[in-house]
């Protein structure tokens, strides 16, 4: 399972020697209080580490380059308690490689009307100290998150906490490895892309391994291990009778368990955080991986079908962002429409591989035939999704840039039985409405593979794109086609 609780963001306060030792002592004391409050906040899932006040070019550079090298540091929070001349920050900010949040706050919430004097004013100068710092960050064209408000408020701490989740997702990509079993589905365009540019831009690598490498591991899995996993299946799901001991499809369950154990061993031994496969290139496997992929995604691995390594990586990043929260993040595909004029909506699914983290109720473990792939009938988990606020996000390669496309959606309870559709089913309504959302998605070149999220926000994904330095486009309740097309055209000029 994914755990980000030991990750760190460093709280770095800027000042200068102009104000004397007494003022700097008070700056340090106040900064310590703020850092401790943020570290103790229920809204912030990572550690907030206080760092000594930086007052010179050398101290700033040393602290920021130390952050670059600190393994558990996923980002920094900066705050100018007093005025900190921003030319001191040029060298450090130029060297900084970690995400940055600029907290525009001040130690005191209220002005002490009866006692305020110039000493107080000199100590509490964030109102213009942060503006000086903000100018330099903008002048250097460095992306960052800006949060404004009093540090002790729930609103500010919630915003900081959500950003730390984004920083954790970005940190997880740095040095991550994703494996492709085989190539992309033949002739498909949107799932392909430039893996060299992706590693340069995002920090993760993608490499292909022959399916024979996996088959060799599968064939070495012991009967004892398979039986133990089958017992876990039987304790976790509503089992189809044909899969129980003595049932006519018991051997299918044995093969499904073998594939899951082999896949997991391959991923663990190789240090991979996600994977993709394609039904056209699975020679040596007796059935397509169904329940195996579903359960590995539930454990935190990124996945997408048909060789779609970009979506596999996005699923992993969004799982990290949402770790520990209610709801889930899962590989998804817009599959078919319900075009009732009164209530059009989208049915999402895939051949087999939808993450049971989205299940509204206890999944059923079943085996059914599959019209493509040319394999034995595969075992899969069947369930319906939940109702509630959600979104779909897709990552595409447009040649001169990557684009992250986000559509706010409303998940809907599926009340129909669907007796002849034995796969996982997710239903949603896209915002602002079906026609506008689908038109905008197609105009933006949105992929048919997405990550469907119940706990990551649009703002978090925009922050993620900001850290990555890539384009983001949002389809939400305020979208109009005219404005959306204008945004696409403006962005084309900007990124060219």
Question: Summarize this, please?
Answer:
By secondary structure, this protein is α/β, with parallel strands linked by helices. It is built from 15 helices and 19 strands.
Outline the low-pLDDT stretches: none
Main sheet?
6 strands, antiparallel, barrel
Strand order of the largest sheet: 11-12-17-16-15-18
Please give the alpha-carbon distance between the first and last residues: 40 Å
CA-atom Rg in angstroms: 25 Å
| Share of helical residues | 25-40%
* Overall pLDDT level: 96
**Count of helical segments?**
15
Strand content: 15-25%
Q: Structural class of the secondary elements? A: alpha/beta
Main traits of this protein?
15 helices, 38% helix, 496 residues, six-stranded antiparallel barrel, alpha/beta, elongated
Your description of this structure?
This protein has 496 residues and is α/β, with parallel strands linked by helices. It has 15 helices and 19 strands. Strands 11-12-17-16-15-18 form a six-stranded antiparallel β-barrel. Strands 2-1-3-4-5 form a five-stranded parallel beta sheet, sandwiched between helices. Helix 1 links the parallel strand 1 and strand 2 (47-54). Helix 8 crosses helix 10 (250-270). The chain is elongated, with a radius of gyration of 25 Å. It starts with 7 loop residues before the first strand and ends with a helix.
List the helices and strands and how they pair.
Layout lengths: L7 E7 L6 H20 L6 E8 L2 H13 L3 E8 L9 H6 L4 E5 L13 H6 L2 H14 L5 E4 L5 H20 L3 E5 L13 H8 L2 E5 L1 H9 L3 H14 L1 E2 L10 H21 L3 E4 L13 H8 L3 E3 L4 H13 L7 E10 L6 E4 L15 E4 L11 E4 L5 E10 L4 E11 L13 E5 L3 H10 L5 E5 L4 H11 L2 E5 L5 H15 L1
Parallel strand pairs: 1-2, 1-3, 3-4, 4-5, 6-7, 6-9, 8-13, 9-10, 16-19
Antiparallel strand pairs: 11-12, 11-18, 12-17, 13-14, 15-16, 15-18, 16-17
């Amino acid at each position: 399972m994914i755990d980000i609780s030991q990750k760190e963001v460093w709280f770095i306060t800027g000042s200068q020697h102009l104000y004397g030792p007494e003022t700097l002592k008070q700056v340090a004391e106040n900064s310590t209080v703020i850092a401790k409050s943020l570290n103790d906040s229920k809204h912030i899932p990572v550690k907030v580490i206080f760092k000594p006040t930086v007052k010179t070019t050398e101290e700033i550079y040393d602290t920021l380059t130390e952050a670059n090298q600190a393994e558990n540091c996923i980002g920094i929070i900066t705050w100018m308690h007093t005025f900190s001349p921003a030319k001191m920050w040029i060298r450090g900010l130029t060297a900084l490689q970690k995400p940055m949040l600029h907290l525009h706050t001040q130690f005191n919430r209220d002005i002490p009307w009866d006692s305020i004097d110039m000493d107080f004013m000199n100590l509490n100068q964030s109102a213009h100290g942060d503006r000086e710092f903000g100018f330099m960050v903008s002048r250097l064209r460095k992306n960052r998150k800006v949060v404004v408000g009093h540090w002790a408020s729930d609103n500010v701490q919630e915003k900081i906490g959500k950003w730390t989740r984004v920083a954790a997702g970005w940190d997880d990509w740095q040095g991550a490895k994703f494996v492709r079993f085989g190539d992309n589905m033949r002739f498909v365009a949107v799932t392909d892309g430039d893996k060299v540019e992706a590693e340069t831009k995002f920090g993760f690598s993608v490499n292909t391994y022959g399916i024979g490498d996996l088959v060799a591991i599968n064939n070495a899995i012991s009967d004892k291990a398979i039986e133990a996993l089958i017992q876990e299946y039987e304790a976790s799901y509503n089992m189809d009778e044909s899969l129980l001991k003595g049932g006519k499809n018991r051997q299918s369950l044995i093969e499904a368990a073998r594939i899951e154990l082999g896949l997991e061993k391959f991923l663990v031994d190789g240090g991979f955080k996600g994977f993709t496969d394609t039904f056209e290139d699975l020679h040596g496997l007796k059935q397509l991986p169904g329940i195996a992929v579903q359960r590995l995604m539930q454990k935190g691995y990124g996945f997408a079908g048909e060789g779609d390594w970009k979506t596999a990586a996005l699923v992993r990043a969004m799982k990290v962002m949402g770790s520990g929260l209610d709801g889930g993040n899962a590989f998804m595909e817009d599959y078919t429409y319900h075009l009732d004029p009164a209530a059009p909506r989208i049915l999402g699914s895939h051949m087999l591989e939808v993450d049971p983290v989205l299940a509204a109720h206890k999944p059923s473990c079943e085996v059914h035939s599959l019209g493509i792939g040319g394999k034995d009938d595969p075992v899969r988990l069947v369930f319906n999704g939940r109702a509630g606020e959600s979104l779909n996000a897709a990552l595409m390669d447009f040649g001169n840039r990557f684009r992250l496309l986000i559509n706010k959606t409303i998940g809907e309870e599926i009340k129909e039985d669907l007796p002849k559709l034995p796969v996982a089913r997710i239903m949603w309504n896209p915002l602002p409405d079906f026609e506008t959302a689908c038109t905008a998605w197609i105009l933006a070149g949105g992929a048919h593979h997405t990550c469907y999220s119940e706990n990551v926000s649009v703002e978090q994904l925009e922050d993620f794109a900001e850290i990555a330095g890539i384009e983001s486009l949002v389809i939400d309740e305020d979208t109009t086609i005219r404005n959306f097309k204008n945004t696409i055209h403006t962005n084309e000029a900007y990124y060219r």
